[in-house]
Amino acid sequence: MPVSVCDFCAVENPFYNQYIKCMITKHKMQELQERAEKYGPLCVGLDTDPSYIPDSVVKAVGSREEAVLTYNKEIIRRVAADKSACCFKVQIAYYEAMGIAGMKVYAQTLKAVQDAGLTAISDIKRGDIAATAGAYARAHFTGDFETDIITVNPYMGFDTLKPFTEYASPEKGGKGAFVLLCTSNPGMTDIEHQELKDGSLLLERVGSEISRIGAEFKSFYPEQTCGAVGAVVGATQEKDARRLRDMYPDTFFLIPGYGAQGGAARIAATLLDKAGGTVNSSRGILCAWQKDSDLTEKREAGALSLADIASAAAKAAIFSKEDLLNAKKSL
Predict the structure, then answer these.
(1) Of 94, 189, 268, 289, which residue has the fewest beta carbons closer than 10 angstroms?
(2) How far apart (Å, rounded) are the C-alpha atoms in residues 100 and 106?
(3) How far apart are CA 115 and CA 76, in angstroms?
(4) Where is the active site (predicted)?
């Protein structure tokens, strides 16, 4: 039986691996960093719960799953056209909650982001023993759910990160991972601010490990401008923002908490210094139609269309981008 090119590539072949090394000169984290510089730091969160979509739109489309997919695609199209964001973060839980049909929507949403030429971040927050983590990594860095960057949880130990971070190598596609460091939820201090024996905080130990792992890939990417592994740092803790930015100058940040979670643009802007970052806004964009004064009459009449809510989302994305850039300039 003749061997196909795909069969040849699938085996452990040193010549093919060397070819891939030559082809991939930037990892996904640096690609995102460059897009943030080009298009602005906004990350649009597609945490698209069906309840965020008006009944009139769901009825017009036919089903809640199809409504979510159609809304996602229209937001992606408009944001890409407006150049108002550098990436999209897709929170898998909202799609898992819709069952098999929802996971098909999840896969199609990721593809739509990548087809638009923007970075797809899968917010999966996985973390498990090595064998299981390896299966998670394969599930999200290859196959139906292939993405550019994922989020991971380090609190089972740093050995659980390796199955994910090894995908940052050129042979495995230069994929990225954002490791939870200083999150935006109210209870983050319960664990992340615990003091260790040496007087440092637990989150600082995690941050040092993120920096170390990110720097390991410099031999593959000698001209990298940020580490191959990033960190999740919320925009809700002003006292932490400058300190963490200064402690990890080469780490690119994923910054949640801006907008609906109460994080101010000035905190986010502080975190955008040095290696930079991308600032996520989800509900503030997805649900912008609920507060758009131009849609008051249609909203009260229950007559909103897909174009109406997508237009409101696109306007909110433009506003958020400008808000963040203005805050950055004012520092």
Answers:
(1) 189
(2) 10
(3) 10
(4) 125
Question: Between β-strands 42-45 and 119-126, what pairing exists: parallel, antiparallel or unpaired?
Answer: unpaired
CB 255 within 8 A of CB 24: no
Cβ proximity of 64 and 152 under 8 Å: no
Rounded Cα distance between 161 and 137, Å, is 10
Q: How far apart are CA 54 and CA 305, in angstroms?
A: 8
Q: Which helix H or strand E contains 268, and what residues bound it?
A: helix 265-271
We find that the CATH architecture of domain 26-329 is: Alpha-Beta Barrel (3.20)
The phi, psi pair for 136, rounded to 5°, reads -60, -45
Contact 310, 78 (CB under 8 A): yes
Task: Phi first, then psi: give them for residue 254, nearest 5 degrees.
Answer: -100, 120
Q: Tell me the domain boundaries of the chain.
A: 26-329
Asked if residues 113 and 90 have their Cβ atoms less than 8 Å apart, the reply is: yes
Assigned token pair, 217: 């890939």
Task: Reply yes or no on whether 125 is catalytic.
Answer: yes
pLDDT tens by residue, the chain, 331 residues: 343 334 444 445 555 555 554 579 999 999 999 999 999 999 999 999 999 999 999 999 999 999 999 999 999 999 999 999 999 999 999 999 999 999 999 999 999 999 999 999 999 999 999 999 999 999 999 999 999 999 999 999 999 999 999 999 999 999 999 999 999 999 999 999 999 999 999 999 999 999 999 999 999 999 999 999 999 999 987 888 999 999 999 999 999 999 755 568 999 999 999 999 999 999 999 999 999 999 999 999 999 999 999 999 999 999 999 999 999 999 8
Q: Of all helices (H) and strands (E), which one includes residue 91? A: strand 87-91
Tokens of 258: 């801006």
DSSP per residue, 22-57: HH--S-HHHHHHHHHHHH-SEEEE----GGGS-HHH
- Judged by DSSP in three states, 232 sits in strand
Candidate list 83, 111, 125, 298, residue with the active-site label: 125
Residue 129 half-sphere exposure, CB side, CA atoms within 13 Å?
Answer: 1
